[in-house]
Design a protein that fits this description.
Elements lengths: L18 E4 L9 E4 L14 E2 L11 E7 L7 E7 L12 E8 L6 E7 L4 E3 L12 E6 L10 E9 L6 E12 L1
Antiparallel strand pairs: 1-11, 2-5, 3-4, 4-11, 5-10, 6-9, 6-11, 7-8, 7-10
């Protein structure tokens, strides 16, 4: 017998409860360039910074990329930002965020930022890649402090542009939330 099956909002959860949050296969998370980033795409439709030139070993489709140049501004940082429309996202119960990272510099710190619906901000400690232009998996513990994880409004991947190399590129792929 023939049958049609329709699936919407499929989420794969591992036995440990980890969740694949974004595999960069499409524009579903609508990331934006901010700070000292080089916005290669001036199209006003806000095309997401996805490239098919590089993908991590566990995801063959694409990755998100951020090119930075410290002369672009005085922020000392470039970042990719994901803002949620209401209702905000519940990240309570997760302990860390993990991603595959490929960076052109071993000296520029890469960190994750968060904002809740009361505009409280928290940031992870910065981490660097051990080898330039090589995929490595990085895990950041979610920071503690005044923050409502049940109403996460914004998540950002950041790179310091005023330390290490003043220009460069970082690729991010296969982001997972870990319990």
């Amino acid at each position: 017998n023939n049958a049609n099956v329709y699936v919407d909002n499929l989420r794969l959860v591992t036995a440990s409860g980890d969740v694949e949050w974004d595999d960069m296969d499409d524009k579903s998370n609508d990331w934006d360039y901010m700070g000292n980033s080089v916005d290669w795409n001036t199209y006003t439709g806000r095309c997401e910074p996805i490239t098919h030139n590089y993908a991590c070993p566990v995801s063959s489709a694409a990755s998100m990329f951020l090119q930075w140049d410290d002369i672009m501004g005085a922020t000392g940082c470039a970042w990719l930002d994901k803002w949620y429309a209401t209702p905000f996202v519940d990240w309570s119960g997760y302990k860390s965020i993990k991603a595959w990272v490929r960076c052109s510099s071993t000296a520029n710190g890469i960190f994750v930022g968060f904002m809740d619906d009361a505009f409280n901000e928290l940031y992870t400690s910065p981490k660097t890649v051990p080898t330039a232009d090589t995929w490595t998996q990085i895990s950041w513990s979610l920071p503690t402090g005044t923050f409502d994880w049940t109403s996460t409004q914004s998540v950002s991947f950041n790179v310091y542009t005023d330390e290490g190399s003043s220009t460069g590129t970082v690729y991010i792929d296969h982001i997972e939330l870990q319990r």
